[in-house]
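User: Predict structure, ligand EPU.
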Amino acid sequence: MSKLVVEGGNRLEGSIRIPGAKNTVLPILAATIISGKESVIEDCPEIKDVELTVEILKNLGCKIKREGRTLTVDSSDISDYTIKEELMDKMRSSIILTGAILARMKKAKTTYPGGCELGLRPIDLHIKAFKELNISVVEEGGYIMFDGENAHSGDIHLAFPSVGATENIMLVATTIKGTTKIINAAKEPEISDLADFLNKMGCRVLGAGTSVITIEGADSFSNVNHTLIPDRIVAATVMAAAAVTGSTVEINNVNTEHIGAVISAFREMGVLVFKTMDNSVVVSAAGRIKPLNLLRTSPYPGFPTDAQSIITSVLSVADGTSIVIENIFEQRFKHTEELIKMGADVTVDGRCAVIKGVDRLKGAKVSARDLRSGAALVVAGLCADGFTEIDNLYHIDRGYENTLLDLREIGAKITKV
Ligand code: EPU
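Assistant: Predicted complex:
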């Protein structure tokens, strides 16, 4: 099994470019199914979750070509509506494929989704919304069968602004006659990117980025060429790497609006973050990190849950005590058990972590427990004394290109063994 070995204590320097976002490419890949045309996705990250989604699309009958970061999907010959169990198991986001498959084929067949183990991750909001659109959902022999032959438009009130449920409703509504309205929709930038893609494809989606989104069904679509928004969580990860190593790093291809809450937290921690030109920021840290009295994760534009583990690593070497409350996923503090092996002083009680900053972390053998916890351990390793060995790298590969080895471009000493 391969491991990352991170040598701590080295300053970082230089500039690094952020690729297109994982959490936008997945729903957009799903959307390519709908058109029956050719979709070209630019700046597509080379990560495991994309590979898996491509595998599912190929199984459904799509023809796919990748040339570097350009991915072309031709969905003219889709012939199947089943997502195979072994592929569904590997990725929770595969659930949003059902909305797109239904939009195109009027039927879909899946099992319950897998993916990171972030506690109970139900799909009740997706199912409830489908039913409200008169899509029948039946469990049979371990599979969920969706039938959208008699689907009709309607108003969907989401009990929580779920990102995945918002995307799924947007996707399925693209071919339902009339106007479907989502109330209490998720406002994440990835939702707006999906809406942009759908609109280029010939759909009429309004209000993305606000809590009310309307989708008017269409019956003909066109070829699309779309460049993905940059990955805001990869940007946050690089910011954290600069912060813990007391470094100055330029980050290119970043949308500062998308990471407003993250920038604000870093500034509160005493890290300088300034925009140099369009789509670039410089992050500069010196001396001890200041603690955060209280950091709460919340839906966008609040502090993103996906950056919580990464920032916990930074706070573990702050000059004082910080409190972090995780409001989105109940089991997203697994990395703290590993940070403790590195000398961090963290106490977790349910959704709350109390982090007493220590002077130094020390290198240790640790395990990535989910995607972002893996990244958090790399960040911790960069400032720890000695060497940190991280295993279970498949988690990191789901959402970071080249197992985060690209941090070597800015001087990080990381090897894969
Ligand atoms: N939820 C329900 N019922 C549902 C759907 C969600 O109770 O039917 C709950 C979830 O259990 C969770 C909360 O609502 O507690 C938020 O879930 P949401 O549906 O918003 O998240 P998601 O669509 O499953 C996406 C990202 C996650 C990111 C969250 C929140 C993708 C592929 N995944 O997940 O990304 O954390 O939104 O922003 O877009 C990651 O990148 O590391 C990651 C986990």
